[in-house]
From TrEMBL, chain A:
This is Isoquinoline 1-oxidoreductase, beta subunit. It comes from Nocardioides psychrotolerans. Residues 264-343 form the Aldehyde oxidase/xanthine dehydrogenase a/b hammerhead domain. The lineage of its organism: Bacteria, Bacillati, Actinomycetota, Actinomycetes, Propionibacteriales. PANTHER family: ALDEHYDE DEHYDROGENASE, BLL3820 PROTEIN. GO terms for molecular function: oxidoreductase activity. Pfam families: MoCoBD_1, MoCoBD_2.
From TrEMBL, chain B:
This is Isoquinoline 1-oxidoreductase, alpha subunit. Pfam families: Fer2, Fer2_2. Residues 75-152 form the [2Fe-2S]-binding domain. Residues 7-54 form the 2Fe-2S ferredoxin-type domain. It comes from Nocardioides psychrotolerans. One of its GO terms (molecular function) is metal ion binding.
């Protein structure tokens, strides 16, 4: 079997998947590998013999309403070849998309009489730009200007089950086809209505910017046709989608649609909403992580404070409702509360790390020749706070017979269920409104804020506008779990015989729904060998892929049971990948050194994915890999493959004393500075290149923070960090002056994930560059975790005082 | 309860609230002016950055009682009016560079940027990289690079 026998789209992937294609040769005749589980329909499409048609629905209504099934996202899968890592074939994207399949639920697009189209997207906008990209997709198929396409966020739709989860960089991937089908169908029905009106046939008509013309002077707008195109009965209709070669919107850079609102202050986040009676509410929280209140000793005094209206002891702390948030802060600082210990009383970073190390799964130690040399990496990753700039906030109005919630939520259905449980209502008595979030990064996957707000509203018998204090976030909020990653590779005669990675982590909380999605898929996953793995292990197995020819390659996760429920954890702009990728790529640099090869040359030799090689080659060229660098500075290079795509990143770092020791005054941490980042990304079909570039830039900032500066310290059951002057996310003084993003033209006809793609590869590239610049291999990430460069803020009271010197600091 | 009077976005406002309530909460919770955001409450994240008498300040760190009736407070909502246009050149630059992602920090970023340009002009010079390095406003989406490009563009058009 030689590449020559393959179709062009497949050729690129031959090197990677020979083994797979040999077993299932039937796939070889069509399409690129990422479409290898395509049905024969798409096969013919790829071969250019005709386009596949999809089924959509025209719903009954007084104006045109069309629908498409979300299960259209993915054609049926074929059998799964062996001998390759699972994510090459079936990764988290597929899992999420397939989990959606059995729900058979519809998304609808309405053509309004004013000529606009409206669509409520069952996903959450958290800054990643899906409102804009979804508008682009609809505008494309409808042939309607973007300003006439109105996309909003759907409230919780329980009937969608877990098809309303925004996570794992999956949104565009899973909704792309259904949305296009709905758009194409609407256009088709409008054309048919116009044909009747003009006394012609639809194929003689053209659409331009929401107007249908017959070329003979007859014109009608979509608005004028909306009623006549409507159906009195539900009708199933076949539609053919626009071929990508005809795209005029998809793939063209567009600015964000909400940008003007954002820059004029009009964009509304949860706490900006004016819900009648929902007064500011905050919670006085325990000093220890996940501690609980025993007793408030001075209730009468707190109730007399200025502005305070209500106080309630709830499971998570003592809630206070007042006229302003400032008065809530004052009340919290005045509270005399007795606390129960938390869930990790007495524990510190060092004790948790020791427990993790004690639970590391053994290496298999493959049977290698005695002369083989060993390369070992053993690094720890600190706890990190997943908090966004908008702290957890939710408005809740809980009555005897109903409840209404307003919050930024990526899994609103689950929040709806949990709110219902918390306040003793049926799920259908709870309305959950999804509000655009001030960032997520994993933070809004959980409904903690909505559940807490509902609990407080019920306890007080009043609507509340709950906002967490910043100090609450690192101390009581969701943390990315501490982990260790050990890698052992064996090398002989320039070949890598084995590469084993053991990732050991504090339990990751997947109760936001990804876990349930896994359960629902467990049977189907058995052929992939996932049976018997825990939720977390399944996700790990589905997301981790090291696309190198390294002989015996194993990557295993262990999340010891002893950490179950001990920490409030979650994802943070990716689940395991940044840590796993950093440890793996650091090891690869060490192997390259051992065999006397340049890191780029070594990777190019051992990488088995042409797609990854193309990206790596691109950053090496654009970033001028190997250029002479002054002592104390270096380049670093790394790759990451996930979410149906890949990234390669080249960075330059400056670790010279004059840079590391820059003094920018109090509340700042400087340290090594990444001076240049070059990203190459191949994420399949790109909807909005400008949005993709932004996601890469933002992901790079997260990668820099993870490797260099951002972490939380656990001491005696408490987390020391309490604000941005303790928790060092990347700031302007550590931003590279030069960031380039190169988008690789892809053969794929479906969009992959973008939101998290650059985080792991940047984190790894920065780590590699740091080691090359300093000659030191860090034992801990971020590299500054060993020094605590701030005075921890008070634990009782749990929030710092509001400053008063602002007028002296005008600038 | 004391009456607090100051000029907000060009118009005098009076609010009945105690002296020690911070201006951020007077703006957001009492006056419904929600452009300035809460991100820390201790003058660290700078998400609430607004202007007082043309200079950047952080209303989370100022008691409303410390404002004088003639103090002119400008929030993002009133920035365009300071130049008598629909958009201030800095806002325009933010749109051109497509800076915003979630958008939560951007009102503060823009207000900080405008004040920074004015400050260096008062010093008789133009913006340098070292000035940009010292901007403290946090953007958790990581839009920093486009912010830098937008400030340079905005500064060119602030004449």
């Amino acid at each position: 079997m030689t590449p020559v026998t393959l179709g062009a789209a497949c050729r690129t992937y031959l090197g990677v998947h020979l083994e797979a294609t040999r077993i299932h040769g039937v796939y070889m005749s069509f399409s690129s590998f990422d479409n290898a589980h395509s049905t024969p329909d798409t096969a013919t499409a790829a071969a250019g013999l005709g386009r596949r048609s999809f089924l959509g629905y025209v719903l009954a209504g007084s104006t045109l309403v069309v629908a498409a099934d979300l299960t259209l996202a993915r054609p049926a899968r074929g059998a799964v070849p062996s001998g390759v890592q699972i994510p090459e074939l079936y990764d988290l994207e597929d899992l999420q998309t397939d989990s959606a399949a059995p729900t058979s639920q519809l998304i609808t697009v309405t053509i309004n009489r004013d000529g606009t189209a409206s669509f409520a997207l069952p996903r959450s906008e958290v800054g990643q730009g899906i409102l804009t990209s979804t508008t682009m997709i609809l505008a494309e198929e409808l042939d309607l200007p973007m300003n006439k396409v109105k996309v909003t966020l759907a409230p919780a739709r329980p009937e969608l089950l877990l098809n309303q989860l925004t996570g794992g960089s999956n949104s565009t991937f899973s909704t792309y086809t259904p949305i296009r089908v709905a758009g194409a169908l609407a256009r088709q029905k409008l054309l048919e209505a116009a044909a009747i009106l003009f006394g012609t046939t639809a194929d003689r008509l053209t659409t331009t910017g929401g107007v249908i013309s017959d070329g003979l002077g007859n014109n009608a707008t979509y608005g004028e046709l909306a009623s006549s195109a409507a159906s009195q009965v539900v009708e199933a209709v076949e539609v053919v989608l626009r071929p990508p070669s005809d795209f005029t919107v998809i793939g063209k850079p567009k600015n964000r649609l909400d940008a003007r609102d954002a820059v004029t202050g009009k964009k509304k986040f949860t706490t900006d909403l004016d819900v009648p009676g929902a007064l500011p509410t905050m919670v006085c929280r325990a000093p220890e992580h996940q501690g609980t209140p025993k007793k408030l000793n001075n209730l009468a005094r707190i109730l007399k404070m200025d502005g305070v209206t209500h106080v309630a002891v709830v499971p998570t702390g003592v809630a206070v409702r007042a006229r302003t948030f400032g008065q809530c802060i004052d009340a919290i600082r005045e509270m005399d509360v007795e606390w129960n210990p938390g869930t990790v009383s007495g524990e510190s970073d060092s004790t948790i790390l020791a427990k993790l190390r004690g639970q590391e799964l053994p290496m298999v130690v493959p049977n290698v020749p005695i002369l083989a040399e060993t390369v070992e990496t053993n690094v720890a990753f600190a706890f990190r706070s997943s908090a966004a700039l908008e702290t957890y906030s939710a408005i809740a109005d809980v009555r005897d017979d109903r409840a209404t919630i307003w919050a930024g939520l990526k899994v609103p259905i689950l929040a709806q269920q949990r709110v219902a449980e918390a306040v003793g209502l049926a799920q259908d008595q709870v309305k959950v409104n999804v509000i655009t979030s001030g960032g997520s990064f994993g933070h809004k996957l959980f409904g903690d804020h909505a559940i807490e707000a509902a609990t407080i509203s019920k306890a007080m018998g009043k609507p509340v506008k709950l906002m967490w204090h910043r100090a609450d976030e690192p101390r009581q909020g969701r943390l990315h779990p501490m982990a260790t990653s050990r890698v052992r590779a064996t090398v002989l005669n320039g070949q890598v015989l084995s590469f084993e990675q053991r990732h050991t982590s504090v339990t990751s909380d997947f109760s936001h729904g990804l876990g349930e999605m896994i359960t629902s898929q467990a049977d189907e996953l058995d052929p992939l060998g996932l049976g018997g793995l825990s939720f977390a292990e399944s996700i790990f197995t589905l997301t981790q892929e090291l696309p190198y020819n390294f002989g015996v390659l194993t990557q295993l996760l262990n999340e010891p049971l002893e950490f179950e429920d001990k920490f409030s954890t979650g994802s943070m702009r990716n689940i395991y990948s940044p840590d796993v990728c950093t440890a793996a790529e650091l090891t690869i640099d060490q192997i390259a050194k051992k065999v006397g090869k340049d890191p780029l040359e070594f990777r190019m030799e051992f990488l088995k994915s042409e797609r990854v090689k193309t990206a790596l080659r691109k950053v090496a060229k654009e970033g001028n890999w190997g250029r002479p660098m002054p002592k104390g500075t270096a380049q670093g290079i790394a790759i990451h493959k996930e979410y149906k795509g890949c990234t390669a990143v080249l960075v330059e770092i400056d670790c010279r004393p004059q840079t590391v020791n820059r003094d920018l005054g109090k509340e700042t941490v400087t340290g090594p500075r990444v001076t240049k980042v070059v990203v190459a990304v191949d994420t399949g079909l790109v909807i909005n290149p400008r949005g993709l570039e932004a996601q890469m830039q933002g992901g790079a900032m997260d990668g820099i923070a993870m490797t260099l500066t951002a972490s939380c310290h656990l001491r005696d059951g408490r987390f020391l960090e309490a604000s941005w002057d303790n928790y060092f996310y990347t700031r302007q003084w550590n931003v590279p002056k030069d960031i380039e993003v190169h988008i690789i033209k892809s053969d794929s006809d479906t969009p992959g994930g973008a939101g998290e793609a650059a985080v792991g590869s940047t984190a790894a590239a920065v780590a590699c560059a740091y080691v090359r610049a300093t000659g030191k291999m860090p034992a801990y990430f971020p590299i500054n975790h060993g020094q605590i460069s701030f005075k921890p803020k008070s634990f009782i009271p749990p929030v710092p005082p509001s400053p008063t010197n602002g007028l002296k600091l005008t600038r | 309860m004391p009456k607090q009077t100051f000029i907000l976005n060009g118009k005098p406002v009076t609010v009945n609230v105690n002296d020690d309530v911070r201006v951020l909460w007077v703006l957001r919770d009492l006056l419904g002016v929600t452009g300035p955001k809460y991100g820390c409450g201790i003058n660290v994240c700078k998400a609430c950055t607004s202007h007082i008498n043309g200079k950047a300040f952080n209303p989370c760190a100022v008691r409303v009682g410390d404002l004088k009736p003639k103090d002119r407070v400008t929030t993002i909502e009133g920035l365009n009016e300071t130049v008598g246009k629909d958009l201030h050149p800095m806002q325009k630059a933010w749109l051109d560079q497509d800076v915003s992602q979630c958008g939560y920090c951007q009102p503060g970023q823009i207000m900080a940027a405008v004040a920074l340009v004015k400050k260096v002009r008062r010093e008789g010079r133009e913006i340098r990289d070292s000035d940009l390095d010292q901007i403290r406003n946090i953007c958790r989406c990581g839009t920093y690079f486009r912010i830098r490009e937008a400030i340079e563009q905005g500064a060119r058009n602030m004449r």
